[in-house]
Design a protein that fits this description.
The protein contains no helices and eleven strands. Strands 2, 4, 5, 6, 9, 10 and 11 form a seven-stranded mixed β-sheet that branches. It has a four-stranded antiparallel β-sheet with strand order 1-3-8-7, with no helix packed on it. The radius of gyration is 13 Å and the shape is globular. With 118 residues, it is an all-beta fold.
């Protein structure tokens, strides 16, 4: 059974870069046709897709986040990472990593709370 776990700082100052890592166990992030997602949920709002990186290492970003997002992967450590630059308090929320295959979300991390505040 594949498991995902987010890690990173829970508090980030405005204008700084939010960096999160998702560690995958029970399977390889290079597995064909798997896509590794970053999703967030601001307080009181629904889920927002930030972007993903494909098994091939090619990233794709949602238009709203594209200008300040970088998603990368490291096959040797079986991790993928999210960097979101120039954060504001509106970036506060619970951040999730997930796997997607055949358009189905297969596995989710438990989520990590990130607060943007000075």
């Amino acid at each position: 059974q594949m498991q995902l776990q987010e890690s990173g700082p829970g508090l980030v100052k405005p204008s700084q870069t939010l960096s999160l890592t998702c560690t995958v166990s029970g399977g390889s992030i290079a597995t064909n046709y798997y896509y590794w997602m970053w999703i967030r949920q601001p307080p009181g709002k629904g889920l927002e897709s930030i972007g993903y990186i494909a098994y091939s290492g090619i990233p794709s970003y949602s238009p709203f986040f594209k200008s300040r997002t970088l998603i990368s992967m490291n096959t040797s450590t079986n991790q993928f990472t999210l960097q979101l630059t120039s954060v504001t308090p509106e970036d506060t929320g619970v951040y999730y990593c997930a796997s997607r295959n055949s358009f189905i979300y297969r596995n989710w991390g438990q989520g990590t709370q990130v607060t943007v505040s000075s």
